[in-house]
Amino acid sequence: MGNISRLKPILLVFLLFLLSHISITTSTPRYIPVVNIALNCGSDGNLTDEYGRYWIGDKEPSKFAPTEEHSQKSNTSDAPNSPDLGDPVPYETARLSYSQFTYVFPVTPGPIFVRLYFYAVSYSGFDRSLAFFTVKANTKFTFLRNFSASIHADLGDSRHLSKEFCIIIEEDQKLNLTFIPTPSTASSRFFAFVNGIEIVSMPKYLYYSDPEKTSPPYVGQTFRFAIDNNKALEMIHRLNIGGSSISPMGDTGMFREWSDNKYLLSGGVIPRQPNLALKYSAIPNYTAPDDVYRSAITMGPNTTWNLHSNLTWGLPVDPGFNYLVRLHFCEIEPNITMAGERPFIIYIDNKTAEGNADVIMWSGGRDTPVFQDYIVMIQKMGDDQDTSTLFIDLHPGKATNAIYDAILNGVEVFKLSDNNNNLAGPNPPSTLLPPPPPAQQPGSTSKSRKTRFIAIGTGVGLFLALLTLACCLVVWKLRTSKRYSSYYPVSKCWFWSDQNKGKSMRTKASSLPEDLCRQFSLEEIKTATHNFDEELVIGVGGFGKVYKGFIDDGTMVVAIKRLNPESRQGPKEFWKEIEMLSQLRHVHLVSLIGYSNDERELVLVYDYMSNGTLREHLYDTNKDSLPWIRRLEICIGAACGLNYLHTGVKHPIIHRDVKTTNILLDENCVAKVSDFGLSKEGQDDKAVSTLVKGTFGYLDPDYARRRQLTEKSDVYSFGVVLFEVLCARKALNPKLEEEQWNLANWARKCIEKGTMGEIIDSNLMGKIAPECFKVYVDIAESCVRDQGSQRPTMNDVMDKLSFALQLQKEADATKEKVNPDGKETYREVLSFHVSDTTETRRYNNIFSGQGSELDSGTWLTSNNTGMTYPSLDSDIGKCEDVFTDTSNVSKG
Ligand SMILES: *[C@@H]1O[C@H](CO)[C@@H](O)[C@H](O)[C@H]1NC(C)=O
Ligand SMILES: *[C@@H]1O[C@H](CO)[C@@H](O)[C@H](O)[C@H]1NC(C)=O
Ligand SMILES: *[C@@H]1O[C@H](CO)[C@@H](O)[C@H](O)[C@H]1NC(C)=O
Ligand SMILES: *[C@@H]1O[C@H](CO)[C@@H](O)[C@H](O)[C@H]1NC(C)=O
Ligand SMILES: *[C@@H]1O[C@H](CO)[C@@H](O)[C@H](O)[C@H]1NC(C)=O
Ligand SMILES: *[C@@H]1O[C@H](CO)[C@@H](O)[C@H](O)[C@H]1NC(C)=O
Ligand SMILES: *[C@@H]1O[C@H](CO)[C@@H](O)[C@H](O)[C@H]1NC(C)=O
Ligand SMILES: *[C@@H]1O[C@H](CO)[C@@H](O)[C@H](O)[C@H]1NC(C)=O
Ligand SMILES: *[C@@H]1O[C@H](CO)[C@@H](O)[C@H](O)[C@H]1NC(C)=O
Q: For this UniProt entry, which residues form the secretion signal (predicted)?
């Protein structure tokens, strides 16, 4: 008794722990499926399962009773009494047959989940070892082939199995599911069975690709891969990383089950924010339950260790299939607030999937869930290999604050149907099988099922309780002693399930050519662009026209750049761009999908950026004016892209033509830097001496003078972009008074005079918080300083812009509290003075003296006097070899 009273405080803590962790979702789900059928096969009544879900029977006269082809009817049977039955619905009864049977479900068109439930035991008259069957959906897709539930079940620790598939139902189509026993052999007759079937609809583009949007990248390749109507998916893993399992009722309305941490191969710590209110601004709120995002695994506080290791998961998969890997992220640690503070590299299947992963950059802020999709092919090495491991490795990147870490909150892995519409893999090899489970002893117990269930329940419950108690104490202890909001160490291999231990199930990684950039035939390109239909021209770029095109039977929208055959300058840059782009991959760079060089036509195929260029959104436009926060986000994105070019790759790449027409916006207004035709690889920090190229108004005067190209030239041009974004005026506009022609110079004068606040975009008047303005103008001003050495790096720019964004958001939040209607504006006069006035600035007006304006914003010079003329149709836009005479340059 004394012991018990001593236990009381612990029990109290335990109860509180349980209460805080068992949240019963009573609110309406975030997604309400149109189709929601739960069929309890072999049952004639309707029953509720342990979660309160209503399952209807499939026995006549149920409207879902299966149809049979043969005279031999299928049988139904109750599962034998067995201690591991667990949840009786839908496992308690089964439909079984030695011949084929089909269920037909009338469903609303659209993507649906099909879940099949199996309880792998022997039923009266049906021996479990003889259940081998195929399951087909709508005749087309093979979900399972020669499937043995018992072999699969014996590998795991439970004889309950469920399989989840996704399929799209077309207009006027029903869903029919056919169960076909494997053909009998001389010695055995096989049968098919099923215990439960669930059909639930899902949001249209939850997993299937939205043709209007960028489809997921194909890891290790440069093209993308759309998941369209012709694919069926099988869910292989769905993990709540760092958290506990989530029952179907805890999902967002689609009854998906999320498992707890498994398959972590390395150590890690678990940050948790159990009551965090999440902001769903980047993805729909039904994507995953909140609890998936409220916990994560990170590497932990030892940066030395982190830099020399990976956070690694090894997920068992069938080889020979493409997989959709969805990684869920949410930055939940209180002191990581800005992009650049926790960048990391994502490797999938030992290939770089993401060179600069940054959760805040993707999501736009802390506590904001986001996910990223990748497609990866898991190669089959030889015919006898039937299991493989999909590795996900995270490695710290270059962080601005010297905290080297990585984070992951959730993972979903789906197998994609192959070209034969097949999803089925082989049964696991029998060599992996543990000794057979003890034989069933029918009638060994006379207790009623219900009481047995409760007894087991309590037993398991008690065990779980003790386990949770232990964990709870550990967490509690650590919580009070450690710096992380809440974490506990996860020991190496802790979650690695036994059957995989020590077994290297993976052979050598695939050796597909690295530079596989999709090659198109001219025919394909012509089909895609309706034979270069002028109607589809979306722009006139560096070396020809850009068309909107449709590839892969119209399922994918792309931008197709056709090299102007007259342009002599083009081909070199064309190959340069292919070479560069196929090696670069970043969320803020436009992705190259492929190219074509048939019949002397040179064509590049890119991701389609549905929102066009940044410039189109700033001035001379009928588009809605971009809000200030959006503009900041776009600038941060573009800065990230450039920073990646400068620092994220082996040899730094200098873009050389940074301008608002080369910053494109995708459907979500995410900025992507484009046009690498002029890019130059720097050689290990040394300046590159080269012919002067670029676009007037954006051209770095230091570079023009000294012809020494460094990353700082891009910084200058980016500074001009920042002013353009703030003022919504052209980089160069000779229609204005002479001193105002060159925006960068004019802005610098205004800053000196303290009148910068007067020349900003009238749409932004009253919208910019003064503290944000100060930081922003400071960055822009520092970028356009005369000497490259006085300018910040792109990384600094990125950070400071993120800081400016943060200041704006904070100010907005404060303002909203004071006047929630949002009508009030920032009244304080925006002013800014250059802090560092000791330096006498010499404004180099070389570019403001000549030339007239061209709409595309690009310029061509005809001679070496510095005179520039707009080039109308060639639109080369580069001023090659203008400054042969340096005296020419320094004048003005
Ligand atoms: C079971 O539920 C279905 C659908 O809700 C209903 O049509 C049927 O009558 C019910 N059957 C029984 C035996 O209650
Ligand atoms: C299946 O049911 C039929 C009657 O519908 C019965 O004749 C047959 O023996 C049953 N088969 C088994 C294996 O129980
Ligand atoms: C199943 O669907 C396919 C295609 O929709 C159809 O050809 C077939 O007849 C259907 N089978 C049954 C039994 O309804
Ligand atoms: C989820 O998002 C939808 C649409 O954005 C919104 O209407 C709904 O209220 C949100 N639900 C919850 C629970 O936040
Ligand atoms: C961090 O990791 C390094 C390398 O493994 C190790 O030598 C060092 O002791 C660790 N530091 C702490 C504080 O654990
Ligand atoms: C978070 O805070 C802890 C202590 O409060 C500190 O040790 C750690 O470095 C911080 N992390 C970051 C990214 O600032
Ligand atoms: C991390 O994983 C990647 C991909 O498998 C591998 O190339 C790299 O060497 C690993 N790094 C460390 C430190 O283990
Ligand atoms: C079905 O699977 C079993 C076990 O994996 C295998 O022995 C058998 O050959 C397979 N049968 C067919 C027809 O594929
Ligand atoms: C792939 O990465 C995993 C985990 O980092 C590692 O165990 C495995 O050896 C790697 N395989 C190859 C072929 O590099």
A: 1-27
Among residues of the chain, what percentage have pLDDT more than 90? 40
Q: At what angle do helices 770-783 and 794-818 cross, to 10 degrees?
A: 170
CB-CB contact of 693 with 700 (8 Å): no
* Residues 275, 369 share a domain: yes
Residues lining ligand 3, judged by CB closer than 6 Å?
67, 102, 104, 138-139, 173, 176
| Nearest bound ligand to the CA of residue 404 | 6
Asked if residue 262 and residue 370 are part of one domain, the reply reads yes
The answer to whether 241 and 424 are in contact (CB under 8 A) is no
Claim to verify: residue 714 and residue 809 sit in the same structural domain: yes
For ligand 7, say whether the CB of 36 is within 6 Å of any of its atoms: no
Residue 491 sits in a domain whose CATH number is 3.30.200.20
In the listed set 383, 416, 449, which residue is the last one of a domain according to the structure?
Answer: 416
> CB of 389 closer than 6 A to ligand 9?
no
Residue 785 lies in a domain: yes
Backbone φ/ψ region at 719: left (φ over 0), alpha (ψ -120 to 50), beta: alpha
Q: Is 302's C-beta closer than 6 angstroms to any atom of ligand 5?
A: yes
Whole-number Å distance between alpha carbons of 536 and 204: 27
Residue partners of 592: CB distance under 8 A and separation at least 6: 222, 517, 577, 578, 581, 582, 604, 605, 606
Q: How far is the CA of 335 from the centre of ligand 6 (A)?
A: 6
Q: What is the pLDDT of residues 521-573, one digit of tens each?
A: 888 898 888 888 888 888 776 567 888 888 887 778 899 988 776 654 556 66
Cα distances (Å, whole numbers) of residue 698 to 443, 621, 693:
85, 21, 11
One-letter-per-residue 3-state SS of 12-48: HHHHHHHHHHCCCCCCCCCCCCCCEEEEECCCCCCEE
Residues 255 and 360 in one domain: yes
**Residue 561 annotated in ligand binding:** yes
Work out how many domains the chain is built from and give that number: 3
Write the CATH number for 391: 2.60.120.430
Among 30, 276, 280, residue to substitute to test ligand 4 (most atoms within 8 Å of Cβ) = 30
493 and 412 co-located in one domain: no
Q: Say how far residue 497 (Cα) sits from the centre of its chain.
A: 27
Other CB atoms within 10 Å distance of the CB of residue 667: 14
The DSSP code for 626 is P
Which helix H or strand E contains 544, and what residues bound it?
A: strand 544-551
Contacts of 390 (CB under 8 A, 6+ apart): 314, 315, 316, 317, 323, 325, 348, 349, 376, 378, 413
Task: Report the atom number in ligand 3 closest to the C-alpha of 139.
Answer: 3
Q: Distance between CA 353 and CA 863 in Å, rounded? A: 46
Eight-class DSSP state of 147: E
User: Atom 12, ligand 6: which residue's CA is nearest?
Assistant: 335
CATH number at residue 712: 1.10.510.10
* Peptide bond before residue 436 is cis, with ω within 30 degrees of 0: no
812 domain-assigned: yes
Judge contact between 562 and 520, C-beta under 8 A: no
- Closest ligand 5 atom, residue 305 Cα: 2
* Residues 29-70: tens digit of each pLDDT: 899 999 999 999 999 888 888 777 889 999 888 889 998 876
Tens of pLDDT along 323-370? 999 999 999 998 888 888 999 999 999 999 999 999 999 999 999 999
585 in any annotated domain: yes
Q: Is 263 within the bounds of a domain? A: yes
Residue 391 sits in the same domain as residue 253: yes
Phi first, then psi, for residue 160 (nearest 5°) are -90, 135
pTM for this model (two decimals): 0.57
Closest by CA to 543, choosing from 717, 677, 692, is 677
Catalytic residues: 657
Decide which of 396, 416, 436 is a domain's last residue: 416
Q: Which domain holds residue 804?
A: 690-871
User: Would you say 851 and 859 are in contact if contact means Cβ atoms under 8 Å apart?
Assistant: yes
